[in-house]
Amino acid sequence: MMLTACKKTALPIALALAACLLAPVPSALAGGSVTGGVSSAQAPAPNARPASRKALATWFGPGFYGRRTACGQLLSPAVLGLANRTLPCGTLVNVSYRGRHLVLPVIDRGPYANGADWDLTLEAARALGMTDTARIAARIVGSARNTPTLGQPPAVPILASTGGISAG
Fold this sequence. Notes:
The chain is α+β, with helices and mostly antiparallel strands. Helices cover about 10% and strands about 25% of the residues.
């Protein structure tokens, strides 16, 4: 806690307390961590799970195959990912629908229609059993490095997923 820096001070107790309360809160840029505006000193215990939030989700895919997403991935039928308007590329989101769960990376921006909060790739929607717009539970669980192969299944060769030519 911040009081350790203020323990041995010559200031009167009221001034010492005020100095402690006005001390800067650690930020992610200074090596601390910030979770929803709460400093790491006030963050919940590591095994406390953030609550899932119900949200409207749609899916996208076939008309966009062969194009790059906003995060740089080449969209193909095999890509597992989702789009969100505000989360950084690579954010990992645990998505639940009718008892099925997937952890998906944010690979694109959107959705921009139907008032939805999430836009899943067709393969992600299929894996969850979604056939239409649906209400899903979503919870941010971490982040991954955003690379051109993020969301690609492991069996897809890197050259093929980035549009390169294989040597044989």
